[in-house]
Amino acid sequence: MPPGEAAAGRTRLRVRYAETDQMGVAHHANYFSWFEMARTDLMRQRGLAYRDLEAGGIRLPVIEAWCRYRAPARYDDELEVEVWAEDLRPTRLTFGYRVWPAGARGGAPVAEGRTVHAFADVRGRPVRLERVRPDAWSQLQRVLGSGAGRPGR
Amino acid sequence: MPPGEAAAGRTRLRVRYAETDQMGVAHHANYFSWFEMARTDLMRQRGLAYRDLEAGGIRLPVIEAWCRYRAPARYDDELEVEVWAEDLRPTRLTFGYRVWPAGARGGAPVAEGRTVHAFADVRGRPVRLERVRPDAWSQLQRVLGSGAGRPGR
Amino acid sequence: MPPGEAAAGRTRLRVRYAETDQMGVAHHANYFSWFEMARTDLMRQRGLAYRDLEAGGIRLPVIEAWCRYRAPARYDDELEVEVWAEDLRPTRLTFGYRVWPAGARGGAPVAEGRTVHAFADVRGRPVRLERVRPDAWSQLQRVLGSGAGRPGR
Amino acid sequence: MPPGEAAAGRTRLRVRYAETDQMGVAHHANYFSWFEMARTDLMRQRGLAYRDLEAGGIRLPVIEAWCRYRAPARYDDELEVEVWAEDLRPTRLTFGYRVWPAGARGGAPVAEGRTVHAFADVRGRPVRLERVRPDAWSQLQRVLGSGAGRPGR
Predict the structure, then answer these.
(1) Can you give the pLDDT at residue A7?
(2) Helix, coil or strand: residue B9
(3) Nearest-CA distance from A101 to chain C in Å?
C-alpha cells in the first residue's frame, strides 16, 4: 500500500508514439522506464539525486520488477506515476508505483508495480550501504524512510 | 517450474548496444521484449503464429509481468530465452521464462520471469477464447497445453 | 535554418536512465523519439493534434530521418527540443529540429535533425492531403505554414 | 553505393512486437538499432569486435545518422541488414546500410542508411586512431578497408 501523499512523489509524462505498439496502446515494457523516471524524480526532489549516488560509486541495479496492467494507456495520454519507498534495508531498497491518468484523484490506477534494487559498487558487487557509505545510508533513511518499512499500511 | 525440454521453446539473441545502460549492463526493461520474442517464436514454431491470431481478431495483452534478475547480461553476450506455457485458462494464458547464457545446460539462469495475458478482442475487451474462437482455443490447448496447467513440476 | 521563435515549438524533457548506453550518454536512436515528442507537442499546441489526424484516417509515416550529434546528452540532463515545419507540400511535410540544454539561448545545440513525412491513408498508401482532406490541409498550412517553405532563412 | 558481396556483412533479425507502433509497422527509430547490430556483427566477424575495441579504451560514438524508409517492415517479418564500411579516415568511420526482406536478392530495399562515427577516448574526446592505437587502426584498415574509401562504386 502506498504511503500518504507527503511521502510519495508524482511524475507526469505523456505517452510517446514510439512507446505504442500495433495493439494501439503503450507497450508494457515502457512502464518500467516510467517507474524509473518516477524514482529518479523522487530521489532528486528529496535531495539525493541518483546521478550523484552513482558519481559516488553506488549503483542501485534492479533485481526484481513487477507490474500489473489494469487499463490501457494510449498515445498522447497524460499520465502520472506515483512512487514511494516501500522498504529500505541495509542491502536493498524497494519502490512501489501506481500509474494514474493525469490529475486523477481516486478511481482505479492504470497500472501498479514494484521494483526491488540492490546496493552495489561500481563492479556490480552487492554492498551493505550503511557500511560503505554511511552518509548516503543516513540520507536515504531520512529522505525515503518516511514511506518505508511499514508493511500493512 | 518449467516443463521438460520438449514443451519449452528456446530463442537465441545477442544483447544490443542500444539495450545497455550506463551501468554497463542490459537495461532491465529489455528482458520483457526478450520474453516477447521467445513466446512469439514458441507460438510460431507450434503452428499458431501470434501474427495470425491477431489477424483473426484476437489479442493477448499483457496484464501482469514479472522478472527476477540474477546476473547481469552484457553487450554482445549471446543469450537463450527458455519459454513455456505455465497456465492456460478460458480467459488467460501465462508464460514462464528463464534467460540463460547461450549454450548453458544447468547452472544458474541470468533471469527468470512470467507474463500473464488476457484474451481480448480488437477493442481490447476481454473474451472467453473457447467461445469466440473455439478453433484457436483447441489449437492453443493442443500446442501449448502440454506444458501448461501442471503446477508443482 | 529554423524560423523565428514564433513559428518554432519547444518541448522539454529529461534524459531517462533507460535511454543511456554503456558509453554513459543518451543512445543516438532516442533522439528520433525526442523529435517525435516535439512535433507531437507542436501540432497539439497549434490545434491540430496528430492523434486527431490519425483518428481521421491520415498517417504521417517517416520516410526519411537524419540527425547530427554535436555534444553528448547525459542521464538526468534537462533538454529542450526546438521544432519547426521546414517544408510543406501536397504529399509531404518536413520538420527541422535542434536539441538544446534546457534554458540555453545561443551557444551550440546538442544535436540537430530533420524528418520527412509522407501523407498516407490508413493502409499506408500515399495520398495528396489537399485532395483527401482539404480541411486538414488548410489547417496544416495555417498552423505550420508560417515556418515552412522558405528555404534559406 | 555498397561494395561487392565479399566486403559487406549481413545480419538477420525478426521485427519484435515491441518495435512496432500503432501505425502497425516497425517504428523508424528501431532501424538505427538494427544498423548497430549489423555493424557489431560485421566487426566481430572480421576479428575486430567492438566490445574489444571498447575494452581497449576506444569508442566509436555516432556523430551523424541517416535513414530513408522505402517500405514498411511489420511484426514478425524477417529482415536482413546489409552493412559495409563506406569511408575510413584517421578521425572517423562511415558505415552504409541496406535493409532487405530476408533472402531477397535484388528488388528494392526496405530501407537504406548511413552512420558516421568519430574515434574517441573513454572520456568521449576525439582522437586520431592511427596515433593512439596504431594496431587497431591497421586492423580496421585491413578488415574494413576493402569496402571503404571508394566513392562512386
Answers:
(1) 77
(2) strand
(3) 17
Is C77 marked active-site?
no
Task: For D79-127, write each residue's pLDDT tens digit.
Answer: 999 999 999 999 999 999 999 999 887 789 999 999 999 999 999 999 9
One-letter amino acid of C130? E
pLDDT averaged over every residue in chain D = 90
Nearest to A144 by CA among A133, A152, A134, A136: A136
CA distances to A51, B15, C24, D31 from D36, rounded to whole Å, are 27, 11, 17, 9
* C-alpha cell of residue C73: 546528452
Task: Kindly tell me if the per-residue pLDDT of D149 is higher than 50.
Answer: no
- The conformation of residue B107, written as its DSSP 8-state character, comes to S
The answer to whether residues C61 and C120 touch, using CB atoms and an 8 Å cutoff, is yes
**DSSP state, residue C62:** E
Residue A1's pLDDT is 54
Task: Kindly list the residues from chain A whose CB atom is less than 8 angstroms away from the CB atom of residue B64.
Answer: 66-69
Q: How many C-beta neighbours within 10 Å does residue B112 have?
A: 19
> How many residue pairs from chains A and B have C-beta atoms closer than 8 A?
64
- Whether C149 has a pLDDT exceeding 50, the answer reads no
Encode pLDDT of B42-78 as tens digits: 999 999 999 999 999 999 999 999 999 999 999 999 9
* pTM (whole model) above 0.90: yes
What cell does D25 get? Answer: 509497422
Question: With contacts defined as CB-CB under 8 Å, which chain D residues touch A29?
Answer: 18
Residue type, B72: P
| Per-residue exposure over D109-140, b if at least 16 CB sit within 10 Å of its own CB, e if not | bbbbbbbbbbbbeeeeeebebbeebeebbebb
Instruction: Compute CA distances D76 → A49, B39, B84, C4, D48, whole Å.
Output: 40, 12, 19, 44, 31
Residues 6+ apart with CB under 8 A from D106: none
Cell (9 digits) for B23: 551501468
CB contact under 8 A, A61 and B23: yes
Confidence class for position A41, pLDDT limits 50, 70, 90:
very high
**Separation of first and last alpha carbons in chain D:** 6
Give all strands (DSSP E) within chain D, no chain letters.
9-14, 62-69, 78-88, 92-101, 111-118
Range list of β-strands (E), C4-140: 9-14, 62-69, 78-88, 92-101, 111-118
For residue C20, the tally of other CB atoms under 10 A from its CB is: 23
Q: Which residues of C touch D72 (CB under 8 A)?
A: 61, 124
3-state secondary structure chain A: CCCCCCCCEEEEEECCHHHECCCCCECCCHHHHHHHHHHHHHHHHCCCCHHHHHHCCCECCEEEEEEEECCCCCCCCEEEEEEEEEEEECCEEEEEEEEEECCCCCCCCCEEEEEEEECECCCCCECCHHHHCHHHHHHHHHHHHHHCCCCCC
Residues in CB range of B4: below 8 A, 6 or more apart: none
